Every structure is written in structure tokens, then in C-alpha cells.
Amino acid sequence: MPNGNAMTPELMGVLLLLAAAILMFALNRPRADAVALMMMLALPFTGIITIGEAIAGFSNSNIVLIGAMFVVGEALARTGVAKGVGDWLADRGGSRAWLLTLLIMLAVGLLGSLMSSTGVVAIFIPVVLRIADRTGLDPAKLLMPMAYAALVSGMLTLVATSPNLVINYELMRTGVEGLGFFSFTPFGLPILVVTILYMLVARRWLRSTPSDTGGRPQPGMMDWIDRYDLANREYRVRVLPGSSLVRQPLGEIDLPQKIGVRVLLIERGTGSSRRILARSPETLLEVDDILLLDVDSDRADAKTLATRYRVEVLPRTQRYFIDKADNVGMIEVMVPQESQLIDMTVAEAMDLTDTQLTVVGLRRGRDPHPPYGLREEILRGGDTLLLAGPWKPLRQLQKGGHDLVALNLPKEFDEVLPAAKKAPQAILVLILTVTLMATGLIPNVHAALLGAFLMGAFGCIKIDKAYRAIQWKTLIMIVGMMPFALALERTGGVDLAADALVRLVGTANPYVILGALFAITVTTGLFIVNTANAVLLIPIALAVAHHLGASPYPFAMIVALGASATFMTHISPINILVQSKGNYGFIDFVRIGLPLTLIIGITSVFLVAWWLPLY
Q1: Residue 214 pLDDT greater than 50, yes or no
Q2: DSSP states of 484-537
Q3: Is the model's pTM score more than 0.70?
């Protein structure tokens, strides 16, 4: 066993690997998960840990919990629950950035106190992005405040974050009474208030940096409406009693041939009974059906429609059904040189391919075709077509084909709700999951797995989508850094640090002792995940308390608060989640997180010393 009071060659080797990982994290070269894999492979070569111990993190319950919560979060997004929360917050906050920031941070902070804060961030990222898109605000000004509120939520309750449970376990293992569910609340609530006040000011210093993906911005449907001049191709009509369209199959009416219009979708019913029907030749029209029509002839007019078919022509929006984006979508496709559609007219191609989709735009080179007369245009290899129709057949085109190759989907595609009717079930599953976590009836990981399973069982998410929802890069980064805790313990690094701290602050003022522990915890947290940080430092903190003859609770609490205060590091799982969406760089977390860390550190020291006396 290495001597805990000396710098051994084994400890030096571990520290060199840790320093290399820190340097690569700071440079972001290579990416974080690759660095973690490198460390996972390198540490067993030191002989200090085995390869089995290096990869043991994959079976860690906290890793499984985070993965399960990604699935729960994706199910909430796919059913529209996240969208609904975002709309509710946007309605309350309007376009006032400060109020939206306040509401988002309160919601994330309180929810994160009852369940995995990483899971909460996974749930709220689509919420915040939707709010930003709806209000025109920069997502960077909302995502970091949300992430910081999630970090602080770990200071509110015992189950809010894994380090709290690690520290509680260590307290009980040493023979003292463990912490209660709300033992953290007197510290976490004031810190949450301080963090919100700080971010209401600091958000002004946040700005998006250019994405390093090198790609072009994803187009929206409104961009295509303007580019292909579709505003005047839109008609909406209601079928009136006595109309010749009633009880007639769409295939027999042949509206495209007769008057140059084509039905995109049919809206039937009102209120809760309202439903959208895809077009098919067998569809029978009924009284009060609302037909969404695409007009391909400049000779078609409202009067002709109204008198010939006895329909009520509804007002145009000049936005080509963009208000129906939950049901009507678009996609740009290319006609490849080997396509059998070449030399056919657009009308012939539509009859041959998919009866639910309509060609509403054509581009040959850079210039779009005029908005009318597309049906008679002869297709050539390399032509770009803009198709409109229900999202389901558009999604099928995305998978590729011989005759048409998908080029672009609009950004609205990401907001389509594949399981919108399952929102009530998703809400019930979320309530059940949070309740089980808050009450402790079953372990957190069991509750999260049950929640993920029920989301799939109720049809809120399909199993293949569930696998894609798990952010493996994040999980691998955490798992890869976990072995450092074990390696430092075995090489005597923990004992060496404890002895050094006792010698440094053993006779100092209690505030200085607590401040030093907080600073060490935060500094270590810059390099390793918070759970491993707690595992490393709680033995040191309790050793200091024992040496001083002091109560262990203030020392345990200050380490817990410091372990959650990972505001400055972009290797924190929570910060990683928002890094790409907000286009944050490493320096952004430092310049915003450093002042906040100092403020939270001072606040924590005074709260702990006041609420939990050392002696």
C-alpha cells in the first residue's frame, strides 16, 4: 500500500494523467468523450486499477439513471409536454428576457430538487429552445442560466444529486446519523435566490459564438414560402350543405385536372373531436370539412370555387398553411440522373410516386420556377422539387430512395410531435417518477428506469427513438473520468491531501477552514465529475473534522455544496448538455462562472457556519 504521506511514483503517474486530461479538456482537442476513453484505457496500464475497475462506471447506478432520464425527457418532448411548458412560460414571460430567465430558473431549480438535475436539463433544453425561437431571444442568454439553476438544484434536497447521497452514505458509514431529505434546503434556497439575481445581470454578458459545425443554417418553411413565392397558392374552403363534393371520393372529383387545385389535407370536426385527414383517392368528403388546397393555376379564383362546388372560401393567411405546421410539412428533394421520373411531367410524377404529397415548387439551378404551371413542367435530372403534405410521408422520403433524394427538411421538423395524443400519459408517468424519487419508496435509478419503461409501454416513445435519445457522449465522458477517484485513493493521494489540509488550516478560524474546503472542492470539480469529486473529498473533510474534534456535519455540507458548484467547468454533465446548443466556449463558463462561484462560496461558508456550528 503506498505511503499516504509521500509523493510516490504511482501517485505521480496518476497526477500526470489527470493533468493531461485537464489540458485536453481545456483545449477541447480531442473532444471530451474521446479524452475520457483515453484515460479509461491508460489508467489500467499503471497497474493501480484493473480494466474491470476502469470500465465499472458503465454499471454505475447514476449512469443508468442519467440515461433513463434522457429517455423520459425525449418522451416529454415527443408528446408535446415540453412544448406546452415552453409555451406556458413564454405566455407568462412574454418577450421580457428577465422574466423568462426568472421563470425558467425557478422551474428548473425546483424540479431539479426532486429528480436528476441532468435529467431536468435534458427535459428543458427543447423547452428553452422553443421559447427562444418563439420570442426571438438568443438561446445563449437562456441556456446557461437554466444550467446554473439545475446545478444549484442539487443543493436543495438529499436526492437532488448523487454527491449528496455519496456524502450521506459516508457519514453513516463513520457511525453518525445521516442527513434528512430537507437538510440541504436551508442552504440551497438562499443560494438559488442569489444565483437567479446574479444571472439576471450576467445574462447580458452572454452571446452566441459561431458554431464550429461549418453547416448552413437550417431553413424554415417561411424561407421556402418566400423563395418559391407560395403565398398566393393557398386556398382554404369549407364544404357547405348541398355541395357536389359531399360523399364524393377525392379520386373521382379530379380537382387538379378540372380547376388546377389539389387537396393537401382535410380538417374534420371541431374542438376535441377535430382531426386531420391525409388525402387519398378513397377519402369521402363531408359537410363542414375544411379543405387545405394548393393552387397551381393563375386562372383559379375564389368565385369559381364557390359557385362551381358550393363551398365557402375562407380568408387567406399569405403564409401557406404555416399555422398548420403540426400537420403540414415540406421537404426539398432532388431528382437524380437515374430516376425514372425524368422526362415525365410533374403531374405524371405525382400520380406515380405518393398520392399524399404535392409538388408546390421547382428549382432548376439557383432560380425557382414561377409559382404557377408546375404540373406541365417536364422534369430533368438535377431538378430540385419542394413537396408539401403530411409529415409521415415526408419522413419516409428522408430515408432515401431511387427516384427522389431528400435534400433539406425545415427546422419545423424538429418540433413535430409524433406522439401528441400521448401527452396525458407522459404527464402521469413524470408525476409517478418524481413522486417515487421524492419519497424514496424505491431507489432513484429504479424510478427512472420504471419511468422510461412506462413511457415506452404507453406509446410516448418508440424503442429505437429511446436509444437515440440517450446522449452517449455525455455518459462516456462521465464513466471515463470515474476511475481517477479510485486511483487517487489507492496511491495515497487522498491521505496526502487530508494531512496537508490539516497542517494548513488546523488552527485557523472556522470560516477559513470551511472556505478552504469549499475552494478545494470547487477546484477539484474543474477536472472530475461531481460524484467522483464527492467520493474523493468527503473522506478528507471528515478526517479534518475528526482531527479538530469538530462536528462532521458542517464539513460534509460544505463539500456537498462545493461539489454542486461546478459553474466554471464545461466538463460538468449539465454544462456539456447546453454547451453545443448555446455555442458556448470554454472561456464563457469561466468568465460567467468564476464571479458566481466566489459569491456562492462566501454565501455557503456563512450559511453553514451559522446553521451548523462546528463545535
Answers
A1: no
A2: HHHHHHHTTHHHHHHHHHHHHHTTS-HHHHHHHHHHHHHHHHTTS-HHHHHHHH
A3: no
